[in-house]
Design brief:
The structure holds two protein chains of two kinds. Chain A is of the alpha/beta class. Chain A has helices at about 15-25, 70-80, 95-100; strands at about 5-10, 30-35, 40-45, 55-60, 85-90, 105-115, 115-125, 130-135. Chain A has a single domain (about 5-135), classed as Roll (2,3-Dihydroxybiphenyl 1,2-Dioxygenase, domain 1), CATH 3.10.180.10. A four-stranded mixed β-sheet of chain A has the order 1-4-3-2. Chain B is mainly alpha-helical. Classes of the chains: A alpha/beta, B mainly alpha.
Chain lengths: ~140, ~140
């Protein structure tokens, strides 16, 4: 029986820049940073209050199984914002939006009241999109 | 026009929180940041807790402890980590640190050192084998 997710991957255009974005802007914590022999770098961060979930910041570069052609295709798709697989939870979307907005994080949707709660959508420094919603959504009465 | 009701309240609370984020190593009092937010003391504490889940004093202490953890992980001495993180005394630091992490600063430093040395010595034990094999990094027991 599957119990939990321990690792997920986010493809980024530049690992150093992504590390700075996730740590300095989003408040994630650096977990593991290991340069690997034969090329590559294993770089993971964890959400501020979820230290057991490692997010691997994977490069869009020709390494490991990635051919030059596939890496370039992946890079182009990331840049175009074609990936957005994660949903972040926070205590208060509006406060989080205010802070990240001040820090220069780009939002494709500001905090918006939906029937199921308030959501916002942000982009990371590579172009990946993530939704923000609240741990305890404030529902709109019908 | 404000993008949503009471946006100005959020801006002021967030401003106070970001001030703590930037200046937590200085001798500031989390509950006295209300001046920055231009609120009365009690109103500020109540709104801050509503937004961040903890009162400003606890938020500030947690920031300092998290910073001290990073310093200890990098090999700093306990006394240096205490002062650099903004604590005024080692006993206060030790109590707060143990309450948040479950370990004293000295034990935490030792444990993180062991973990780091192991990461350097056996990096592949810190990478899920599915990733490692997919990326072409050989696991223990692999031929050649």
């Amino acid at each position: 029986m599957i119990a939990r997710i321990t690792h997920v991957s986010v493809y980024v255009l530049d690992q150093d820049r992504a590390l700075e974005f996730y740590v300095q802007k989003l408040g994630f914590k650096k977990h593991t940073d290991i340069p690997m022999h034969g090329g590559g770098r294993w770089l993971t961060v964890t959400p501020p209050e979820q230290p057991e979930l490692e997010v691997a910041l994977m490069p869009t570069a020709p390494w490991g199984p990635w051919s030059t052609e596939n890496a370039a295709a992946m890079r182009a798709l990331v840049q175009q914002g074609m990936f957005g697989f994660a949903a972040f939870k926070c205590k208060d979307v509006r406060a989080t939006y205010e802070e990240l907005h001040v820090k220069g994080v780009e939002f494709t949707m500001p905090p918006t009241q939906q029937p199921f709660g308030i959501i916002a959508v942000l982009k990371d420094d590579s172009g990946n999109t993530f939704s923000l919603s609240e741990l305890e959504p404030k529902k709109v009465k019908p | 026009m404000e993008p949503y009701p009471k946006a100005y309240l959020y801006k002021r609370i967030v401003q106070a929180k970001m001030l703590m984020d930037e200046r937590f190593t200085e001798p500031i009092d989390g509950d006295l940041i209300s001046g920055e937010a231009a609120f009365s003391h009690s109103h500020f504490i109540r709104l801050f807790k509503q937004v961040y889940g903890v009162v400003p004093r606890v938020y500030l202490s947690n920031l300092r402890i998290d910073h001290a953890k990073q310093l200890l992980e990098a090999g700093s001495a306990v006394a240096d980590a205490c002062l650099s993180a903004g604590f005024q005394s080692i006993p206060t630091f030790t109590r707060a640190f143990k309450r948040r992490t479950g370990h004293t600063p000295a034990v935490y430093r030792e444990l993180s050192g062991v973990r780091d040395r192991h990461k350097q010595a056996e990096p592949l034990e810190h990478i899920p084998s599915c990733y490692a094999s997919w990326l072409g990094w050989p696991q223990k027991g692999d031929p050649g």
